[in-house]
Amino acid sequence: xxxxxxxxxxxxxxxxxxxxxxxxxxxxxxxxxxxxxxxxxxxxxxxxxxxxxxxxxxxxxxxxxxxxxxxxxxxxxxxxxxxxxxxxxxxxxxxxxxxxxxxxxxxxxxxxxxxxxxxxxxxxxxxxxxxxxxxxxxxxxxxxxxxxxxxxxxxxxxxxxxxxxxxxxxxxxxxxxxxxxxxxxxxxxxxxxxxxxxxxxxxxxxxxxxxxxxxxxxxxxxxxxxxxxxxxxxxxxxxxxxxxxxxxxxxxxxxxxxxxxxxxxxxxxxxxxxxxxxxxxxxxxxxxxxxxxxxxxxxxxxxxxxxxxxxxxxxxxxxxxxxxxxxxxxxxxxxxxxxxxxxxxxxxxxxxxxxxxxxxxxxxxxxxxxxxxxxxxxxxxxxxxxxxxxxxxxxxxxxxxxxxxxxxxxxxxxxxxxxxxxxxxxxxxxxxxxxxxxxxxxxxxxxxxxxxxxxxxxxxxxxxxxxxxxxxxxxxxxxxxxxxxxxxxxxxxxxxxxxxxxxxxxxxxxxxxxxxxxxxxxxxxxxxxxxxxxxxxxxxxxxxxxxxxxxxxxxxxxxxxxxxxxxxxxxxxxxxxxxxxxxxxxxxxxxxxxxxxxxxxxxxxxxxxxxxxxxxxxxxx
Length: 621
Known about the structure:
Layout: E1 2-3, H1 29-32, E2 39-43, H2 44-54, E3 59-62, H3 69-75, E4 82-85, H4 89-103, E5 107-111, H5 115-118, H6 121-130, E6 134-140, H7 156-160, E7 166-170, H8 176-188, E8 194-200, H9 201-205, E9 207-211, H10 229-241, E10 245-249, H11 251-255, H12 259-269, E11 272-275, H13 300-308, E12 311-315, H14 321-324, E13 335-340, E14 354-357, H15 360-378, H16 384-396, E15 400-401, H17 411-422, E16 427-430, H18 434-442, E17 451-452, H19 463-473, E18 479-484, H20 485-491, H21 494-500, E19 506-511, H22 516-525, H23 547-553, E20 557-561, H24 567-576, E21 582-587
Parallel strand pairs: 3-4, 3-5, 5-6, 6-8, 7-8, 10-11, 10-12, 12-13, 13-14, 16-17, 16-18, 18-19, 19-21, 20-21
Antiparallel strand pairs: 1-15, 2-9
C-alpha cells in the first residue's frame, strides 16, 4: 500500500494562530440597517429586479422562458445585477450554490414555470440538505390560470414545500419587495437554506409601487443565536474533565463563520478533532490534533477515536448515517454535547446529554471563557494516554492506496497531485462518488470554503456548475472541478456557459469508464456482477465520448493524461491556462477502491482499512 502523500503530523503543543479568512454569515439588508424609503412606480417585473438589487444580490444564474420573460426585460437594463445564462436550470441552481459556498453570500437562480421550475428541484433539495443560503425566483402562469393545468403550469410551491426552508406564491405585485426581502433574510439567518419565490406572470405585468421594506415582520421566525449559559457551563465542565474527548465538527461551523473560534477551542482544550465531509477546511488539516474525516470513508483514527471517546462535542453536525454507521453502536461510551442552530437537529438521531441551541460562532465564543474557568478550577486534564492511543492508530493506519496493476493511473495519486501543485488557496468542487471521497481524503484543506461538494443529497452533476458559481464569486482563486466521468456527463454543457462568460474553471475528469462507487459496491457485495456500471468512456481504443474533443467543441482546452510520468506536467499545463476553461481527462484504474470503508448499516467498529483488513483497536481501553 502506498501511504498517502500527507502523513499525519506528530502531536505537539499547538501555538495559537489566526484562522484563514472566512466570510461571515450575511445579514439581510432590510432588517440590518435603516435606509431612505425607496418608492418608485414600476411594473411588477421591474419590482423584482429592483428588489434583488436592494437585497444585495450581485449575480443571477438563470434561463428565460414564457412565464418569467417579463422580468428578463428590465433585468437587461440593470447595472447592479450580472445575469449568467446557463444551459440547464439544474446547472443554474448548483452554480448559485457554489457561489454561496465560496462567498458566504446568498446564491440566486431564476427559472420559468413548469419544467423550468421543476428542473430546480434537485439543486433546491441539495441546498436544503447542506444548509446553503439560496433564493430561487420562478415564474408562474397568470393568477387567473393557476389551477387550470395551463401550459407550463406546475405547482412548484407544493412540489418544493418539503425541501425548502420557506416558499412563497406571489400574485399581487405590491407584495414583491416584501417577499424578496423576507426570502433573503430567511435564507441567510438561523440555519441557512433555500427559499423559493414563485411569482405569477400577471403580477409581473401589472403596474405597482415599489417600496423597499424598512423592517422585517416575520411572526414565529426568531432563530435562537445566543446559547443558554447553563448548557455552556456544563459543556465546559465536561470538556475540562474528560479523559478521551473528541470534537466532532460539522458544516455548521463553516456556515456560521466560526473557524477562528474553533481553532482557539481546539488549542485550549487539547481534544482530538474530526471534521465531517461538509466541514473539511474548518480546521487546517495540518493541525496536529486533527484526525481527519469520520464515517463511512473516514480515517481509521477518526472513526476509532469517536468509538472510544468518553465525550463527543458535536458542533454543527447532525449525526448523519454516513458518519455514525449503525446508530445504536455509535460512540457507545460517550457523553454527548450537541450544539446546533437548528433545534430540530438536537436529539433527532442521537440523544444529547447537553443540548445547546445557538449560532456556532456565539456558542464557541461563550464556551471559551467558561472552559478557561473550568480548567483553572479543575486543572487541565491529563490526555497523554489518550494521545498515545491516537498516535498509535495514526502510525499503524495512515491513509494510503494500492498501486493499480492494470497499467492505468492511481486516482488517489492524481487527486493528491492536483492539491499539492495547486495549493490551499484554491477552491475544489467535487462531484459524487469515489472521486469525491478521494478528494476529501487526499487534498489538504487549510481554510474554510475551499471544499465544495454535495454532502447530504449526493447529487451527481454537482461539480462543474458549482465550480462555475464559485469562480464567479471568487474570480481571483483557482477553481478545480474534480469530477467522475459519470458525473461529468450530467452537467458538462455548462462548459459552454463558462467559455462564453469567461469563467476559466479547471475540470479534472477522473475517468475509470465506470460508475465507480456503484461498481465498488458491486465488487464487494454483488459478487462482481457489474450490471449497468460500464460507461465505456476511454479504457478501450475508442473514447465515447472523447472528452478532449468535447472540451474543444465547447471552446475549452482539452488535455489527456494516461501515464504516471505525465501527471505533474499535465496539471502544470492546466494551471498555466487562465483565459479559458480546461478539461483534463485522467485515465485511471477502474479497480481502485475507496478505503477505509464502513459498509452501510453496520457498526463503525467493523471498519475495513483495506479489502480484507479490519483494524482491531483494543475495545477495553
